[in-house]
Amino acid sequence: MTLADTLGRPLTDLRISVTDRCNLRCTYCMPAEVFGPDHAFLHRDALLSYEEITRVARVFVGLGVRKLRLTGGEPLVRRDVATLVASLSAIDGVDDIALTTNGLLLGRHAAALRAAGLSRLTLSLDALDEATFSKINGRGVAPGRVLAGLAAAERAGFESVKINAVIQRGINEHAIIEMVEHFRGTGHVVRFIEYMDVGETNGWRTDDVVSESTIVARVNDRYPLELVPPRVAGETARRYRFLDGQGEIGVIASVTRPFCRGCVRARLSAKGELFTCLFGATGVDLRSALRASSGDEALRALVHDTWRGRTDRYSEQRRAGEATQKVEMSYIGG
Predict the structure, then answer these.
(1) What is the pLDDT of residue 92?
(2) In what order do the strands lie in the sheet with 189-194?
(3) For residue 247, what pLDDT is reported?
(4) Helix, strand or coil for residue 74?
(5) SS3 227
(6) Domains identified in the chain and CATH numbers
(7) CA nearest neighbour of 24 among 188, 135, 130
(8) Is-above-0.85 flag for pTM?
(9) CA max distance for the chain
């Protein structure tokens, strides 16, 4: 029997944050003025161990999850992530394991991740010109370092990598066509993301959002597109194919085209809290159940009951003018 929430949405995907730390300070996620040198990140003892993460994942798979995604923070700043990938890939019923990264450490990890069973990679890259990207990432990092990570991923056998670019008005909307031209025909897919009000620290304003319709129109003027049907239910990105056969782009339009009614994703924070929405305010403590002596049944019941009672539809409520306090994206992954 499929586990479904109050709106009939099944649980099929689990996003796992392995750390709240990152080696960048992107303005839309971990602005440097908030996450400075004195910021108190989670102590090592507060993090779930890889064994605990695997145990939680096994419970979720038993409830219907088939896709796992590792996130952060930046997941590759945590040691030996390939070991975790190998443990997760050994779980019977897991069809797909992905990882989202800024790419800076891929050169030293891509081959091991592939060998351990990682299925897919997503890279974050918000512009190709150095001035813009350096300003966004808050650390003066050049885009060439991310592209070097992509090259390492290609050598390791990752043939189709998704490239995520958060587009902000007046910041990097000029980068849209350049990103398209760089990745067209490579087999990689650029996914443009509407700037979202995740967390409470990024200074989000509606006026800073570049809409899906604007992004698609701009690309279509240069390279004609057609909308492609989703591969599976619950896809976050709407897909557009180039009419000349040179690949496709995606657009994640949480602001102007909410997809709450198709959301099938749960999120596990680095310290073991279950969030049922990216825009959630509080999570359900799974770590205590993990570290108790009651076994997996209590953990399974907690996950089951949490999902069954899920009512989240924040993006729809945002459009209706309702507001809530929200957890930071760096805490539970994007």
Answers:
(1) 97
(2) 225-228, 238-242, 248-252, 189-194, 162-167, 120-124, 96-101, 67-71, 13-17, 265-268, 273-275, 284-285
(3) 97
(4) coil
(5) strand
(6) 13-332 (3.20.20.70)
(7) 135
(8) yes
(9) 61
Cα–chain-centroid distance for residue 164? Answer: 9
Single-letter residue type at 151: A
Residue entry with tokens 């995604």: 69
Provide the residue type at 169 as one letter. Answer: R
215 close to 222: Cβ distance less than 8 angstroms: no
Residue with tokens 């159940």: 289
Worst-scoring range by mean pLDDT, 34-38, 90-94, 262-266?
34-38
- Would you state the pLDDT for residue 73? 93
Q: Tell me the CA distances in angstroms from 309 to 36, 56, 259, 305, one per residue in order.
A: 37, 19, 19, 6
Under 8 Å between Cβ of 304 and 3: yes
Contact 48, 270 (CB under 8 A): yes
Secondary structure element (H or E) that encloses residue 298, with its range:
helix 296-308
| pLDDT per residue as tens digits for the range 296-334 | 999 999 999 999 999 988 777 765 555 556 566 665 766
Which tokens is 302 given?
Answer: 């907690």
Read out DSSP for 43-66? Answer: PGGGSPPHHHHHHHHHHHHHTT--
Question: Are 333 and 71 spatial neighbours (Cβ–Cβ below 8 Å)?
Answer: yes
